[in-house]
Automatic annotation (TrEMBL):
InterPro entries named in the record: Sulf_transp_TsuA/YedE
Record key words, sorted: Membrane, Transmembrane, Transmembrane helix
Taxonomic source organism: Petrocella atlantisensis
Record's protein name: Transporter
Highest rank taxon of the organism: Bacteria
Transmembrane regions: 28-45, 51-67, 88-110, 122-147, 159-177, 199-220
Annotated spans, Disordered: 1-22
Length: 230
């Protein structure tokens, strides 16, 4: 068989294969109906508990942004090893830099006015539980294919794997909350809480953290360039 006949045969098969494919059905009507139902439900709940509508609206906005940007903390740690891309990694670092400045400004505003600094309950001791939890959570989110935000976003997209992940996410959270007292008494309380402004001052803490983020950003960029050259 000549090259021309082979080409015609392959072309014919491709044409027949493409003709068999059914055009994808538009999901826009379902989306409109769902938005209307969610809006009606949020309005109903808002009548009983003021503020529910805006909370739901904020959640939908964040979900849309996550879905369109494919922003995921898991991808920021996984992609450099799997694909060599650090695009999401650098995006996360930029987000860290922005939130560092924003949250420090808020906390410092309370501090200079002699008010209780918000969020100090999250400044917890560093202990063995921190290392163990980080390793277990890192392994779990890579296997599941998403962290908390990524799991919720992909669950909304209809991924069955994320539905299973969400069930165990809830189960693990409830189990962890049940045993948290034991962990706190035996491990967490044995560590030391570190609040950077106590050691470097407010300005020094911000500068130090931004320098670390910048160095990680440069390292991520160099890493991707090295991978792309191979």
């Amino acid at each position: 068989m000549g090259d021309t006949e082979k080409t015609e045969t392959v072309t014919g098969r491709s044409a027949r294969g493409s003709s068999r494919r059914k055009p994808k059905k538009s999901q826009l009507p379902y989306a409109i109906v769902l938005i209307v139902l969610v809006g009606a439900l949020s309005w109903f709940l808002d009548q009983r508990d003021n503020g529910t509508f805006w909370l739901l609206l904020t959640g939908l906005a964040f979900g849309y942004i996550l879905q369109r940007s494919r922003f995921c903390f898991t991808a920021s740690m996984r992609d450099p090893y799997l694909t060599g891309s650090t695009t999401v990694t650098r995006a996360v670092l930029v987000a860290f830099a922005i939130t560092t400045i924003g949250f420090t400004a808020i906390k410092y505003g309370y501090f200079i006015n002699g008010l209780p600094i918000p969020g100090m309950s999250y400044v917890v001791p560093i202990s063995f539980a921190t290392i163990a939890g980080a390793i277990l959570f890192g392994i779990g989110m890579v296997i599941a294919g998403g962290c908390a935000s990524g799991t919720l976003m992909r669950f909304g997209e209809g991924f069955q794997m994320q539905f299973l992940s969400l069930i165990f996410f809830i189960f693990g959270s409830l189990w962890g909350a049940h045993d948290f007292g034991w962990w706190k008494y035996h491990f967490i309380s044995k560590g030391k809480a570190i609040f950077l402004p106590d050691y470097f001052g407010w300005l020094g803490a911000v500068v130090l953290q931004l320098i670390i983020i910048f160095l990680l950003y440069v390292a991520a960029e160099k890493y991707q360039e090295a991978k792309s050259n191979h």
